[in-house]
Write a structure and sequence with these properties.
With 268 residues, the chain is α/β, with parallel strands linked by helices. It has a single domain, classed as Rossmann fold. The strands form 2 sheets. A 7-stranded parallel β-sheet has the order 3-2-1-4-5-6-9, with helices on both faces. Strand 5, helix 5 and strand 6 form a beta-alpha-beta unit. Helix 1 packs across helix 8, helix 3 packs parallel to helix 4 and helix 4 packs parallel to helix 5. The longest helix has 22 residues.
């Protein structure tokens, strides 16, 4: 049963436009704690359905658009009197060897995972009430390596440092800014990998706690960071079951696990 620690707070969750995605799980958890939750993203229908479910508000916005971010801030002030909790849960798991990433892919992921979030938090900061909480969903790979996600990892790591800057800027108003770093997590974005025999097992073997993460794990961390009694700012919270103690499996190790699970012949 929820304790309602966030009752009377207004929260914005950006990146909640995908049915069942991490942003939606976070939005439900914040609503369960008593927040009035505004869900935002690019796809109107799932946002509207979620807002109806949690008695919240839906606002269509693209994080790569500075105009959209400014419009979000204006609406939050006009309709909610401001915002207390801002969560960015957008992301794109761009995968591929470094030497094969195209210029177009690189520019797109920088726009989505660095430039867009920078402009987003820049626009939202004036609308955040004193004592608020800014939360960025980062990745364990900003700290530990994967051998085929260079652009993804680089943009996540870079934005972790921006969150530290936001902690300094917001500090005088009591505004906290922190990142959360999941590891391999069961979400719609990883559904294909989870459905491939051997992939989940390869990752789970690296977790001291014995399982890969879930969106609920991350939502619980968001709720804690959003609470007024959380005396932490400018930090990266590693919510990944101890994965950073061992590191991610290599691509070769994942492939070996898949071959063992499926009995498929290894390529010559």
């Amino acid at each position: 049963m929820s304790e309602g620690f966030l009752r009377s707070k207004v929260a914005l969750v950006m990146g909640a436009g995908g049915a069942g995605n991490m942003g939606q799980v976070i939005a439900r958890a914040l609503a369960d704690e008593g927040c009035r939750v505004v869900v935002a993203g690019r796809t109107a229908a799932p946002l509207a359905a979620l807002a109806d479910e949690i008695d919240g508000l839906a606002m269509t916005a693209d994080i790569t658009s500075a105009d959209d971010s400014r419009a979000l801030a204006q609406r939050l002030v006009a309709e909610c009197g401001g915002v207390d909790i801002v969560v960015n849960a957008t992301g794109w798991g761009l995968r591929g060897p470094l030497e094969q990433v195209t210029e177009a892919q690189l520019r797109a992921i920088v726009d989505l995972q660095f430039t867009g979030p920078f402009l987003f938090f820049q626009a939202l900061l004036p609308a955040v009430r004193n004592g608020g909480s800014l939360i960025q969903i980062s990745s364990a790979t900003a700290t530990i390596m994967l051998d085929d996600h260079a652009a993804y990892m680089g943009t996540k790591a870079g934005f972790d440092h921006v969150m530290r800057c936001l902690a300094l800027v917001g500090g005088p108003r009591g505004i906290r800014a922190n990142s959360i770093s999941p590891g391999f997590t069961e979400t719609p974005m990883t559904a294909g990998a989870v459905a491939t025999p051997g992939v989940k097992e390869a990752y789970a073997a690296r977790y001291p706690l014995g399982r890969v993460g879930t969106s609920a794990d991350i939502a619980a961390a968001v709720v804690w960071l959003a609470r007024d009694d959380c005396f932490m700012s400018g930090q990266n919270l590693q919510v990944n079951g101890g994965l950073t103690l061992r590191g991610n499996p290599t691509r070769a190790e994942v492939d070996a696990s898949v071959f063992a699970a499926t009995g498929a012949p290894r390529p010559a």
